[in-house]
């Protein structure tokens, strides 16, 4: 639970009544309010004793630590989530999707997997969807593994190093230390041996245990040693255990502010599933149930794309509908003979309509009205898409100056606004189009032929 300003004030000098203003705020309570919101740091108060400062920093830290893997524009940050359920607020940091490469695989397979991370990208509702990381697993050939580490790190994407041999693991780490790789697995068995190397050259680490209970003493020890960038793998053996363990970790961190479990989760369906379909199912569950990183054995377009779409949906703020800019969109090589279509600025609606106009091979002006991200039916039912609002919008954007014939095609679901719109747009012909965007490739050519026949 977040620390309240009143609780913080009590810990400030003189019980929060010093009001020296040296922090830049008029009162201690004003400073406490800013501190509670994360707008300032405890260092702003020059009179806080060290132990109180440490106590406040601990209390104000996010319940789930933010961990960054990799560097540069492709770096992946996970953690720092605030809610158990998406509808409570939103999930902020999309799960990283990784592809697994091992030193046992032949050159053709390795090259194909390296290229898949770069090549398999998809555009959906104005966003680019892609996977994020390489995961390199050591299978016994140290020389090949270390060469693979250098080769893959040069691609510029974050790297997870999976290697149970500590000597090889840290050799690999040293090769790409400047790339900030994730080192995995750190276990209760190898912790003492790994600590000196981890402290000498810090990097994010993955803690592997047999169950959630084993995590607690390890993360406590790591924190005492100053190692804080941690991800957790409780090693579930089934879908049921995965959902149980990941939920327990998330609830303990957020509801109980239990710091030993306040870290992101690493999920390895690639090592649990018996086939690609089961792996995709487990990966989907991981994305939904709080995994910060999900590792797949390979990327197949027909399985990766649905997983990326699922991730996009889960990590979209439910309070803010996806929307596009209100304006005229020119689809194709438009002329003054091109048809004019009207729709709302809900992103899914826009991209569906624009795509089907392209499929029709008929260049058109698509006028997108701001309806606060609502689809046609929802916007009409709430009064945001009516003749009274759409008419002035079409006049304002000046689409009438771009075409010879004053005709506008409205969505079939908004057929009831036809009369109102004709009153607003004197001299315009308002045509009711199909209800479904998928019908536009058949509808538009027919309309063009009809208009041409009327001219003859």
Using only C-alpha atoms, the radius of gyration works out to: 28 Å
Principal-axis shape: globular
Quote the distance from N terminus to C terminus: 74 Å
Major β-sheet profile: 8 strands, parallel
**Number of helical segments?**
17
CATH class of the largest domain: Alpha Beta
The CATH homologous superfamily of the largest domain corresponds to: Dihydropteroate synthase-like
Q: CATH topology of the largest domain, anyone?
A: TIM Barrel
Average predicted confidence as pLDDT:
94
What's the short version?
By secondary structure, this protein is an alpha/beta fold.
Structure, described:
- The protein is an alpha/beta fold and 456 residues long.
- It has three domains: 5-60, Electron transport complex subunit B, putative Fe-S cluster (3-methyladenine DNA Glycosylase II, Chain A, domain 3), CATH 1.10.15; 67-314, Alpha-Beta Barrel (TIM Barrel), CATH 3.20.20.20; 327-455, Rossmann fold.
- Helices cover 41% and strands 17% of the residues.
- It has 17 helices and 17 strands.
- The protein has helices at residues 5-11, 13-16, 28-37, 50-60, 107-119, 142-153, 166-175, 191-200, 215-224, 239-255, 276-288, 301-314, 347-360, 376-381, 387-397, 418-424, 440-455; strands spanning 67-69, 76-78, 96-102, 121-124, 127-130, 133-137, 159-162, 182-186, 205-208, 230-233, 265-267, 291-296, 327-331, 340-344, 364-369, 407-410, 429-432.
- The protein has an eight-stranded parallel β-sheet with strand order 10-9-8-7-6-3-12-11. It has a three-stranded mixed β-sheet with strand order 13-15-14, sandwiched between helices. Strands 1-2 form a two-stranded antiparallel sheet.
- Helix 7 links the parallel strand 7 (159-162) and strand 8.
- Helix 11 (276-288) runs parallel beside helix 12 (301-314), helix 13 packs across helix 17 and helix 15 (387-397) packs across helix 16.
- The radius of gyration is 28 Å and the shape is globular.
- The mean pLDDT is 94.
